[in-house]
Amino acid sequence: xxxxxxxxxxxxxxxxxxxxxxxxxxxxxxxxxxxxxxxxxxxxxxxxxxxxxxxxxxxxxxxxxxxxxxxxxxxxxxxxxxxxxxxxxxxxxxxxxxxxxxxxxxxxxxxxxxxxxxxxxxxxxxxxxxxxxxxxxxxxxxxxxxxxxxxxxxxxxxxxxxxxxxxxxxxxxxxxxxxxxxxxxxxxxxxxxxxxxxxxxxxxxxxxxxxxxxxxxxxxxxxxxxxxxxxxxxxxxxxxxxxxxxxxxxxxxxxxxxxxxxxxxxxxxxxxxxxxxxxxxxxxxxxxxxxxxxxxxxxxxxxxxxxxxxxxxxxxxxxxxxxxxxxxxxxxxxxxxxxxxxxxxxxxxxxxxxxxxxxxxxxxxxxxxxxxxxxxxxxxxxxxxxxxxxxxxxxxxxxxxxxxxxxxxxxxxxxxxxxxxxxxxxxxxxxxxxxxxxxxxxxxxxxxxxxxxxxxxxxxxxxxxxxxxxxxxxxxxxxxxxxxxxxxxxxxxxxxxxxxxxxxxxxxx
Length: 509
Prior knowledge:
Blueprint: H1 11-18, H2 20-41, H3 49-52, H4 55-72, H5 82-98, H6 105-133, H7 136-166, H8 182-205, H9 211-224, H10 239-263, H11 270-291, H12 298-307, H13 311-342, H14 351-374, H15 378-384, H16 387-404, H17 414-428, H18 431-437, H19 445-452, H20 454-474, H21 480-496
Helix pairs in contact: 1-8, 2-5, 2-6, 2-7, 2-8, 2-13, 2-14, 4-6, 4-19, 4-20, 5-6, 5-8, 6-19, 7-8, 7-14, 7-18, 10-11, 13-14, 13-20, 13-21, 14-17, 15-16, 16-17, 16-18, 16-21
C-alpha cells in the first residue's frame, strides 16, 4: 500500500472497529450501577464506599500505561491492539461471573480489582485504535461512535435488574441464605457473555495499519501541519527534572502524612500523602536508572514520556481532572443519595431501598441512553462551532444536572437531571480524545492514551480519599452533597476548556 495520508473509512468500518465498546461498557455499567449496592448488602458502610472503590482507579493507573506501552510495540497475526482487546475480554467476563457470588465484602472488593484490571486491558487500546486508523477529520466521528456503543451498552446493562423485576417478574429480593437478589446475579452473567462476544466482533471484523504505514502517515501529517511536530527530551536530558520532582513530591507527601497523623485524621487520607511520596520515589528511581545508563526499559520510558507530554495534553489534563472527579462522585454516591434524599430510607434490606436502587439503575440507563443519541449530534455541532465549544457547553449542562438533584424530591423528575449528565458524558467520551489524538506521535499513541488515563484516575483516587471524610465531618454522612460537589467540579472543567489548544482542529487545516 502506497498512501501518503490515512484514507477515510466507511460508516460500517468505523462501526466494526468500535463495536467492542458495547461489551466493555456493559461491564463498566454493571460495575457502576451495582457494585456500591453489593458492597452495602455485604455490610459496607456508606461513608466507606469510596475507599472500597479505590481498587478501580488504582488498577487503571497501573494497568493502562503498561498496556499502552506494550501495545505500541506489538505486531503479530492479530495486529497491534487487538490481542489486548481479546485477552482483557476473556478475563473481564470471568470476573463478571464471580462478582455477584462474592461471599464477603473483601472478596467483592478483590473481585472489583481483578474486574477493573481486565476491563482496562481491553479498553486502553481502543482509544489508540481510533487514533491509529482514522484521519483527523473523522476522529470526532470515531470517538462519537464509541460513545454511542458506550451509551447503548450502559443503557441495557443499567436497567437489566429493573426490567427483570418489573417486566419479567424475577425476584428482586435475595432468597434465604443468599446475599443478592436473582435480578442482580443474572445481570452479571448476561454481561459476561455480551462483553466477550462484542469484543470478539471487533477483533474479527477490523484491520490495522502496519508500523511502517503508520510512520508514513505521520510524516505526511507533520508536513501538512507543523503545529503537530513532536520534540522529545531523552532520559539523560531530564535528570535534573527527575531530581527536582523527586524532592518536591517526597517532601510534600511526607509533610501531608505527618499532618494527617498528628491531627488523627481518617486513614484513607494517607492515600494522598502516600501517593505523593510514591511518585517522588519513582522520580528518584528514574534518575538513578538513567544515571547508570539503564534507561532502555519500560519503566523509565513511561516516566520520560510522561514528562514529555505535548502541551495540548497538559491542558486537557486539567479538564479531565475536574470532569472525572464529578463522574466518580456520581458513580459512588448516587445510589446512597437517591435512596436517602429522595426515597427516605437507608435500610438496605427494605423493599423501598431496593426500589430506589433499581431506579438508580434506570437513571444511569437514561443518561447513557441519551448519551448514545447525542453522540451522533456532537460531531455536527462541533463542525458548526468547534470541538472546544461543544465540550464546554456539554460540561455546563452536566454540572447543572448533577446539582439539580439536590432540589428534587420526586423520583421521576430525576430523569431531567440525567439528560444533562448524558450530554456531558457523551462529550467526555469523545471530544477530549478527538482533540488529544492529533497532538500525539503515532508510534506512542498507546502509551500516551495510557498516561492520559492518569488524569481520569487521579481525580477518582482523590474523590475516594476525601469525599467520605467530607461527608462524615461536614455533611452528616448525607450523600447528596457528594453529587453537589461533583456538579461544581464539572462546571470548573467547562471553564478550563478555554485553555486548550486544539492543534489539528479541522478548522485550522
